[in-house]
């Protein structure tokens, strides 16, 4: 697939004059091969419900609404009326929407010493069993259409005598196959055939595929758990059987907030920006170019043999800090210092269901996967101002989980069951502190009620029972029958059909019957732009409310 440069000077002139909107910065005197990536799938690959005008709301990605002149882009999107780039252009949003390609392009181009190009073909509401079927394409016949689009795009590079290689294929699809009783059970077989067909038809037997996880944070992660599990299991099995296929987790990514309930089917603006980073980091890890910031706790902050209070933070979207950004924390008056590492507090974490985890104790600081942070920062500041002694923080979250995933019983989606990992995480944190010579007080588990669970009637109905089961299990398995749980709850969605379940009263009843369960009504929050998910100021407030509740309990006679 490579076409060697014959005359670098001539190629430079041709590229500058023929590839519309491409900056001269793309063309190097003697560039390595252009790395070509193919993006394909259905609506969450298209970028449905993303909005270009909203990109600037999210500081880590604020500049991605503008064209990236150093990245080539060719696309064909949609169904009956397909939008097309009509050749190669600079990487940019497609009309008023975009997919994972924007953040992918920036992240990869900043990390490798090579030019990159992206060819994208995606269409919402389509199936691998029919539309994308290489052998018997039906419906919108996307396999032959996408293959033709890829070949045409590559032919233009050939015509310009551009040296290139096909570097990777990013695939995000499966939501529609899960509803088809014929396609669902054979998804793994169909995916293997799809991969083999691309490798054959592009004459690229070593082509690497990156399979994006179907996001469990969407409404389908709640009302279609069995169906999503079937597709997820099929995709993982293909990745396990083919060393050139990698399964890319995405359930920790943001999901669009839609309607009064706040539940949606698509990533939306922030989720798509994070979605692209997932593919980029998976690719960079594959080629050994993923840079990881080292945050060592160089000096152990506690005196030898001294007691340590361990505070465990746990929960979902807001405990993880989905929309709390360090860039905004820097501008929040009085809280700027929270962006810096706190060398007096040892911090251990596993966020996104293990998507990002500390390998050793680190200084407390922002450690979210996208310049994000949780309530632990403001919580610790409030406690340190009261001089309560040595503080250590352990954080275990999965923003793509629901409350039933945390119960000892779990659900039929076994790969999402968190209880055993959660208990093991706590035990490990305690053991490591003891091994360092400290006596450890497990001061409490600080949990924020599942946001999605509050917005879906069957889950809202069962939320209190699920929480009670998790609390009881933790006390038994940690051999701490009086272990305190501090459970915060933001205002639940006020919507007809949901209000027949008074979740606030249910949680209050649990607390009234259990003196070691402290119910925190986090109802006085800064104004929030979205349902369910809290912004930077809201997360800071939740941390302070937890600290206030702990301090009140501590001084009780």
Summed up, what is this model?
With 557 residues, this protein is an alpha/beta fold. The chain folds into two domains: 40-286, SGNH hydrolase (Rossmann fold, 3-Layer(aba) Sandwich); 308-554, 3-Layer(aba) Sandwich (Rossmann fold), CATH 3.40.50.
Folded structure, characterized:
By secondary structure, this protein is α/β, with parallel strands linked by helices. It folds into two domains: 40-286, Rossmann fold (3-Layer(aba) Sandwich); 308-554, SGNH hydrolase (Rossmann fold, 3-Layer(aba) Sandwich). Helix content is 33%, strand content 17%. Strands 1, 2, 3, 4, 5, 6, 7 and 8 form an eight-stranded mixed sheet that branches. Strands 9, 10, 11, 12, 13, 14, 15 and 16 form an eight-stranded mixed sheet that branches.
Keywords:
557 residues, eight-stranded mixed sheet, Rossmann fold, alpha/beta, 2 domains, 17% strand, globular, single chain
- The CATH topology assignment of the largest domain is Rossmann fold
- What percent of residues are in strands? 15-25%
Number of helices: 15
The domain tally reads: 2
The residue fraction in helices comes out at 25-40%
* Terminal residue distance: 76 Å
The CATH homologous superfamily of the largest domain is termed SGNH hydrolase
Low-confidence stretches are 1-30
Secondary-structure class? alpha/beta
3D shape: globular
């Amino acid at each position: 697939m490579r076409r060697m440069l014959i005359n670098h000077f001539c190629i430079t002139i041709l590229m500058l004059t023929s590839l519309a909107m491409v900056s001269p910065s793309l063309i190097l005197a003697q560039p390595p091969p252009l790395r070509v990536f193919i993006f394909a799938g259905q609506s969450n690959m298209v970028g449905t419900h993303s909005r270009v005008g909203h990109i600037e709301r999210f500081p880590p990605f604020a500049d991605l609404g503008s064209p990236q002149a150093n990245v080539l882009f060719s696309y064909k999107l949609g169904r009956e009326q397909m939008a097309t780039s009509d050749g190669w252009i600079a990487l940019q949003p497609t009309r008023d929407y975009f997919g994972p390609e924007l953040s992918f392009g920036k992240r990869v181009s900043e990390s490798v010493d090579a030019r990159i190009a992206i060819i994208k073909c995606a269409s919402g509401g389509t199936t691998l069993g029919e539309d994308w079927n290489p052998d018997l394409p039906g419906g919108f016949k996307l396999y032959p259409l996408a293959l033709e689009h890829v070949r045409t795009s590559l032919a233009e590079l050939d015509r310009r005598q551009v040296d290139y290689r096909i570097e990777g294929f990013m695939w995000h699809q499966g939501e529609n196959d899960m509803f088809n009783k014929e396609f669902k059970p054979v998804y793994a077989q169909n995916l293997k055939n799809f991969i083999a067909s691309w490798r054959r038809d592009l004459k690229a037997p070593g082509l690497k595929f990156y399979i994006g996880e179907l996001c469990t944070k969407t409404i389908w992660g709640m009302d279609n758990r069995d169906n999503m599990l079937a597709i997820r299991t099929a995709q993982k099995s293909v990745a396990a059987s083919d060393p050139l296929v990698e399964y890319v987790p995405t359930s920790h990514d943001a999901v669009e907030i839609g309607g009064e309930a706040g539940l949606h089917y698509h990533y939306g603006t922030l989720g798509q920006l994070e979605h692209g980073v997932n593919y980029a980091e998976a690719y960079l890890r594959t080629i050994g170019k993923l840079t990881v910031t080292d945050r060592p706790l160089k000096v152990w902050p506690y005196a030898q043999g001294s007691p340590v209070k361990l505070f465990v933070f746990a929960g979902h979207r807001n405990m993880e800090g989905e929309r709390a950004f360090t860039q905004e924390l820097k501008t929040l008056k009085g809280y700027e210092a929270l962006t810096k590492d706190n060398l007096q507090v040892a911090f251990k974490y596993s966020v996104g269901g293990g998507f990002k985890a500390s390998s050793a104790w680190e200084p407390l600081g922002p450690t979210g996967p996208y310049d994000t942070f949780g309530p632990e920062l403001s919580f610790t500041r409030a406690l340190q101002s009261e001089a309560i002694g040595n503080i250590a923080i352990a954080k275990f979250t999965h923003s793509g989980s629901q409350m039933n995933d945390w119960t000892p019983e779990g659900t039929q989606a076994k790969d999402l069951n968190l209880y055993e990992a959660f208990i093991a995480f706590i035990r490990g944190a305690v053991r490591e502190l003891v091994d360092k010579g400290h006596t450890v007080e497990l001061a409490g588990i600080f949990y924020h009620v599942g946001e999605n669970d509050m917005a879906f009637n069957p889950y809202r109905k069962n939320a209190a029972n699920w929480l009670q089961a998790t609390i009881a299990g933790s006390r038994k398995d940690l051999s701490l029958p009086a272990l305190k749980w501090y459970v915060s709850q933001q205002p639940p969605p006020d919507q007809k059909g949901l209000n027949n379940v008074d979740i606030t009263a249910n949680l209050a009843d649990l607390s009234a019957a259990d003196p070691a369960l402290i119910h925190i009504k986090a109802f006085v929050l800064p104004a929030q732009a979205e349902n369910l998910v809290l912004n930077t100021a809201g997360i800071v407030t939740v941390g302070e409310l937890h600290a206030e509740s702990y301090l009140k309990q501590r001084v009780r006679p």
